[in-house]
Amino acid sequence: MSLSFVQGDTAPDIASVIHDEDAPASPKNLSTATGVRFQMRKSDDRRYTVNAAAIVVNATLGQVKYQWGANDLAVPGTYDVQWEVTWSGGRIQTTTPPEEIEVRRQ
């Protein structure tokens, strides 16, 4: 996925389907997940710009989304984004590889 957003925007939401790593064409069933986080950081930085709770739109189909906060897209640049799933029992699985988005100047 290569998406582009404009600096300062808060819409549209960013959405994705989390796929099963063993069967990449199949969505991951998130029914037993206790939470999903959206994580975003500049490509050249190890610190997250955004690390916040995401919304599971359809657990069976692995559909998730994140609603941008007021300052999430404040700084132009290239960002890596990923989804972190916490399963019941506390195990954590992060999507790989990270996907890239571009935030362009207003």
In a few lines, what is going on in this structure?
The chain is mostly beta strands and 106 residues long. Helices cover 0% and strands 55% of the residues.
Q: Care to describe what's here?
A:
With 106 residues, the chain is mostly beta strands. It has a single domain, classed as Immunoglobulin-like (Sandwich). The chain is 0% helix and 55% strand. It contains no helices and 11 strands. The two termini are 22 Å apart.
Number of discrete helical segments: 0
The CATH class: Mainly Beta
CATH topology: Immunoglobulin-like
* Strand percent estimate: over 45%
Which secondary structure elements does this structure contain, and how are they paired or packed?
Elements lengths: L1 E5 L7 E4 L1 E2 L2 E5 L5 E10 L7 E4 L1 E4 L4 E4 L10 E11 L4 E3 L4 E6 L2
Parallel strand pairs: 1-11
Antiparallel strand pairs: 2-8, 3-4, 5-6, 5-9, 7-8, 9-10, 9-11
Primary descriptors:
single chain; 106 residues; mainly beta; Immunoglobulin-like; six-stranded mixed beta sheet; three-stranded antiparallel beta sheet; 55% strand
